[in-house]
Design goal:
Secreted effector protein pipB2 fold; five-stranded antiparallel sheet; globular
């Protein structure tokens, strides 16, 4: 079952939503990295994200399509290992929701003594415009080593449970914020 979910997620992230009519996309530069937990090292490992700016007639406005390649052994407790794609889809209408989560993260880190969240402290969520039925949930989280993360839960079911969760470290939170600023100003230029 989990291998099927990884395959579905990979296909959806590569094709957007499947056959969606008039569709255009362009690659854009980003330095954002997503982090996944490695049981082998007991640390979070950064995975470089790719970025596309996409448009389709089924969704109004442009959508940022982030994707970082990960390892599904994180999902299935070290059994068969295969590739999974960690997505983050942000439509123009959803930028404020992501910025709200980023600002909650900044406020948390600006405290003299930030709270230590060993379980994810929820801060915001939205149902993706890009693919209705996918929910992105954001939270605050500390690793065992005390490293602060903005967590992202990708929920691909009506059960209300995360299909998987990945993390964004402090540096990539700021890089994501910069990308969102450029996106709002329509400053992304296609990469050939």
């Amino acid at each position: 079952m989990k291998a099927n979910i990884a395959i579905i997620i990979t296909v959806l992230s590569l094709t957007g939503c499947g056959s969606i009519g008039a569709y255009t996309e362009s690659h854009a530069d980003t330095k954002v990295e997503f982090s996944e937990y490695s049981a082998n090292t007991d640390h979070y490992l950064n995975q470089q994200a790719s970025l596309k700016v996409a448009q389709t007639g089924l969704v109004s406005g442009s959508t940022l399509l982030y994707a970082a390649q990960g390892d599904s052994s994180v999902l299935n407790m070290g059994q068969l290992s295969s590739t999974v794609i960690y997505p983050l889809w942000i439509n123009e209408s959803e930028v404020d929701k992501v910025e709200f989560a980023i600002n909650k993260y900044r406020h948390w880190q600006a405290q003299v003594t930030p709270d230590n969240y060993l379980t994810i402290e929820p801060v915001n969520e939205y149902v993706s415009e890009w693919m209705n039925g996918v929910t992105f949930k954001f939270g605050l989280f500390n690793s065992k080593q005390g490293m602060p993360f903005l967590s992202v839960c990708y929920e691909f079911s009506e059960a209300g449970t995360c299909t998987f969760t990945y993390m964004i470290d402090e540096q990539s939170v700021e890089l994501l914020s910069n990308d969102l600023h450029k996106f709002k100003q329509h400053l992304f230029t296609p990469v050939s």
